Amino acid sequence: MPAERLIPVLKAALVAGLLAGLVMGLFHLVLTEPVIDRAIALEESGAHSHEAPMVSRGTQKGMLIVGSALYGLLIGIIFAVAFTVMGWRMPGRWPDIRAVVLAGLMWWSVALIPFLKYPANPPGVGEPETVFYRQGLMLGFIALSALAMAAAGLVYWLLGKRWHHARLQGRWLGVAVVLYGVLATTLLVLMPADSDPVTAPANLVWQFRILSLSGQVFFWAVLGGASALLLRRFARQGALRETG
């Protein structure tokens, strides 16, 4: 992974990731936090004890912005490495188009598909004793989903490299899509379900879930769009070489 290929992509991805994280944090601060406040109030109304939280809600909301920004920087690093390693294999002639495609594929594999299996729940949903188990399931599913997408992409690249013909590219893409569909479906079926009861009102739960997924949509859209704009600028300046 030559530095002259990684550095400009890393610069673009870090700026885009930071921006995406801040946008997502502000989105959740304005729209999702009121839903969380309602969920906490509902949980406390049915609790026998009303101990003060270790971290106040004001501090938690401030940490939301900081945590979202750090999350954006971390994802930016991962995005830069992924783009440098396999960005040149993405569909599209220019790096900005490839950045958008890669962001879309990453959103699909690490955000949307895991959400379909383990949709987000507001505070108070699920047993406290199973929180680490549920988090482990989610993280494991995200990792396996990303591997499934990577495996399909690798098969597409290997087939295209072995039988390089313009007429066959569509066929190889179809093979990769079918393979990914099989792998993703297998994950959705075989991974254990979250068996904890959902006792909160359905409208509150689904409002929280929709906002959680929307925040991820905004995050990946900003990450892909901002990366594309910066990579296009670097390419015009001659600072970005072909990542192949």
Report on the structure:
The chain is mainly α and 244 residues long. It folds into 2 domains: 1-125 and 201-244, no CATH class; 127-197. Helices cover 77% and strands 0% of the residues. It is built from 6 helices and no strands. It starts with a helix and ends in a 7-residue tail after the last helix. The model has no long low-confidence stretch (mean pLDDT 84).
Question: Secondary structure elements and their pairing?
Answer:
Elements: H1 3-45, H2 57-86, H3 95-117, H4 131-162, H5 166-190, H6 202-237
Helix pairs in contact: 1-2, 1-6, 3-4, 3-6, 4-5
Compute the number of structural domains.
2
How far is it from the N-terminal to the C-terminal residue, by CA? 10 Å
- Helix content percent band: over 70%
Taken from the alpha-carbon principal axes, the silhouette is globular
The pLDDT mean sits at: 84
Oligomer: single chain
| Low-pLDDT segments | none
Number of helices: 6
Residues in β-strands, percent: under 5%
- What is the count of β-strands? 0
Instruction: Please state the structural category.
Output: mainly alpha
N-to-C SSE string, H for helix and E for strand: HHHHHH
Largest sheet: none
What does the radius of gyration come to?
A: 21 Å
Keywords:
244 residues; mainly alpha; 2 domains
Summarize the structure.
The chain has six helices and no strands.
